[in-house]
Design goal:
alpha/beta; Alpha/beta knot; 4-stranded parallel beta sheet; 4 strands; elongated
Length: about 190
């Protein structure tokens, strides 16, 4: 890529063969072609690049770190990207801006890179496994006298919601169930001690 890099004396020459130009700015402009955040624009920009490939490249223009792109330079752009940053200090250095926009384009192109697969895959918990976990949770909470003045039904409803939102695998549901059973056994041993 570095060996193919070209150098130009001005922006007009650099953009001469481009089919579409995207500018970057820290200042949100009010022109009608508006601005977008890179994450919102990435997929659409890739589609534009593919559709216009025969007519020329799609360029992304970054400004100098001290001043960014001038209004005249931004006027040459078909779209503006604004990286969301701290409103009190919106500027990024050039390397950061290039990295962030490149990363968003890469994510969109790869449709979010697949994360490593765990060594042991477990299917989602079955209804029977979840029901057993709910029951063992209830018994464990009773055993440690957690309810006191609380309403067991309401608290268990909340626990069920927590377990559902967690999207537990069968292995995870069995682990939590095992913990609840051990709590019960431990309390029984304590109560049976002299």
């Amino acid at each position: 890529m570095l060996e193919r890099a070209e150098f130009f004396d001005d922006l007009e020459d650099a953009l001469g063969d481009c089919a579409y130009v995207v500018g970057t700015t820290a200042r949100k402009r009010t022109q009608t072609f508006v601005w977008q955040h890179p994450r919102e624009a990435a997929g659409e920009l890739l589609a534009i690049a593919e559709a216009r490939a025969a007519r020329g490249p799609v360029a992304i223009v970054f400004g100098r770190e001290d001043k960014g792109l001038s209004n005249e330079e931004l006027d040459r752009c078909d779209r503006l990207l604004v990286i969301p940053t701290d409103p009190g200090y919106a500027s990024l250095n050039l390397a950061q801006a290039v990295l962030l926009i490149g990363y968003e384009l890469w994510l969109a192109a790869s449709e979010r890179a697949a994360l490593p697969v765990p060594k042991r895959h477990a299917p989602p918990a079955t209804r029977a496994q979840l029901d057993a976990l709910y029951q063992d949770t209830h018994v464990a909470l009773e055993t440690i006298e957690f309810y006191k003045d609380r309403q067991p039904e309401a608290l268990l409803r909340t626990m069920r919601a927590v377990y559902r939102r967690a999207g537990l695998t069968g292995r995870e549901a069995n682990l939590l169930r095992g913990i609840m059973i051990e709590v019960r056994k431990y309390i029984a041993r304590l109560r049976g001690a002299p």
